[in-house]
Amino acid sequence: MEFRQLEYVAAVAETGGFSRAAQRCFVSQSAISHQVAALERELAVELFDRSQRRVRLTEAGETFLPYARDLLALRDDAIAATAPRPDRVRIAANMSFARAALAAVSGVRDANPDAEIDFLIKPFAQRIDAVASGEADLALIRGTVDRDGLYLDPLWVDQPVIAFSSRHPLAAGGQAPTPADLAPYPLLLPPADRQVLLHRLVDRAFDRADVEVTYGPEIREGHSVAFDLINRPDSWTLLYEDPLQPGISCRRSLSFTLPVSAVLRDDAAPNQLVAELLTELSHGFRRS
């Protein structure tokens, strides 16, 4: 069964004859007759009653026609969904990028009111896969990635926040604590396999300061970081955003910085909306 056969069946049914259907489809009458007959042999039924001057659907044809139209509509929907759309951009990210992304999207939408910009929530590896497969036009990541067919466009430098209980000994100071200040206190982080980037960032900062980090219990998945910090008032952690929760103090330190980049495909077609979005995300640095 081929889509062109379904198109020919629909055309014959709607025009009432093979000749008129051929004119609509810009093919010869014999081509339409041949393809419809081939489909009838495959289905082992006759779809049309050819005994009258006007060709009519048989009972089997009446049953088949709605399915044929549905299949043709699904084909058209699939083509439309996967076709490049210059008025649509899909961003793969996680919720820690929501504030920056929403501000950038708002700026782009002001200039392009008909634009459709989707925010796809995905973990790191799935973001990279989404760009590679074409599901997303770009992904926002911290750190780096090395994958054939993809490249990084630097956007900004992120400063994760040092968070601790308001009762922590370092909370009284107005300055951001250094790795040396933090070294005596237990660090609470998720396991390295769930948050490898923060683990690497901590290791790098403490190595540069020539001090050793003190690790506390791991933060369990689905567990509230704020509760852990309050229950262990001598502990601290790193977060991508200030949680703005009572009892929690946060500081930003130049000891802990991460580059934020957009991941894009090498072979992606030029898209003005993507270029404008990258400009907004990087605070005005224009892409050509």
From TrEMBL:
InterPro entries in the record, alphabetically? LysR_HTH_N, LysR_subst-bd, WH-like_DNA-bd_sf, WH_DNA-bd_sf
Cite the entry's keywords alphabetically. Answer: Activator, DNA-binding, Transcription, Transcription regulation
Pfam family of this protein, just one?
A: LysR_substrate
User: Which GO CC annotations does the UniProt entry carry?
Assistant: protein-DNA complex
Q: Which part of the chain is the HTH lysR-type domain?
A: 1-58
Protein name per its UniProtKB record = DNA-binding transcriptional LysR family regulator
| Gene Ontology molecular function, alphabetical | DNA binding; DNA-binding transcription factor activity
Spell out the family assignment given in the record's similarity comment.
Belongs to the LysR transcriptional regulatory family.
Q: The organism's lineage?
A: Bacteria, Bacillati, Actinomycetota, Actinomycetes, Mycobacteriales
